[in-house]
Design goal:
CATH superfamily of the largest domain: Medium-chain alcohol dehydrogenases, catalytic domain
Oligomer: single chain
Largest sheet: 7 strands, mixed
Low-confidence stretches: none
Mean pLDDT: 96
Number of helices: 10
Length: 354
Amino acid sequence: MRAMVTMGHGGLEQMVMQEDWPRPEPAAGEVLIRVAACGLNNTDVNTRSGWYSKTVTDATTGGAFEEVGEEDPTWGGNPITFPRIQGADVCGRIVAVGGGVDSARIGERVITDGWLRDPADPGNMNKTGYFGSERDGGFAEYTTTLAVNAVPITSELSDAELATFSCSYSTAEGMLSRANVTEKDTVLVPGASGGVGGALVQLAKRRGARVIAMASESKHADVADLGPDVILPRTPEDLRSALGDEKITVVADVVGGPYWPNLIDVLERGGRYTCSGAIAGPMVELDLRTFYLRDLTFTGSTVIGPEVMKNLVAYIEAGEIKPALAATYPLEELREAQAAFIAKQHTGNIVVVP
């Protein structure tokens, strides 16, 4: 099969197009999927570059770093085995099944749940892996995954549109769930033009919350299509003044970086900060007095339960959320797609098609 294979940590040159890579076969409890489209996400860039390693303190550049620790360069702080086919957001059809899987599933249209859980202990976060990281993913013509991670979907959306949901939207839903967002909240979303940011806007609105999006002014028209109540510039000089009378009860952040203290300073007493990324930089300054004197709650959000993807499929099928598809690239142009993704040339999600 054709596959884009990541050969090691480093720059875009580490992704090598292979024209005759071995096609995987489904083991017991697994399915073989003919990939129709696969989304591109920050986790693909960060794993390839080695940014998750604690030896790296810079923002996510997408390029090679001088030093990447060999023991913790993945989302889970563990080593990674190369060569590796990345890509977590597959949409496709099941074409074969392994032992113990109902053959009636052949032909099903599915999207993938990226979280690989221990079937005997699915709630244990310490026994999880990620599709495209701990096992090969979807930047190829075929891929295998656990049968329970191939989630059936019935939708009129295109394959490319469906390939935008899994990683970005499940990340966003996990963040909002950890922060217990309800219709009583006003949620501030930095980086609202990105895949997770746009998903946060839609999913917070679905919960009935008031949403204030932050994005570069050139992308405000695209962000407006997602339905936020207010749109602000990406980094207002005086955020409190820019917010006016708005009372921020939740900050849902995947940006971090030097602007981060401004986000914390505008939280109301008893407010919640939820985080699942730090694309502008992982090292931030925190005045602990702000944290404890204002009774703030901080929640990190990475591993999610299987119910999240099932809920997202229900939202998709009911038309309650929509895809934010920015661009599609052929598989052989994955390096160009990542370069565009890193440069933030597009608003929304980028998808590659084998």
